Amino acid sequence: MTAVNTALKQRIIELHEGGLSFSDVGRELGMPTGTVKTHYYMATGQASARKRIPESRFIRYDEPPTIYGDALILPDVEIPFHDSDFLNRVIDLADAWGIKQVVAAGDLMHFDSLSGWEPNWHNNGDKSILSEADEIALMDLAKGLSKVKQAKLMEIIGNTKPLDGKDFGDEMGEARKVLRALSDCFESFVWVLGNHEGRLIRAINSPTNPNELLNLMRLNDERWKIAPYYFCILNSSGKEFRVTHPRTSSDNAARMLATQYHQHILMGHSHKLMYDFDPSGQYAAIQMGHCVDEMRLAYAAQRDARRNCHMLGAVIVRDGYIWLLHEHVDWKMLRKIV
Question: Among 314, 315, 242, which residue's Cα sits nearest to residue 283?
Answer without folding.
Answer: 242
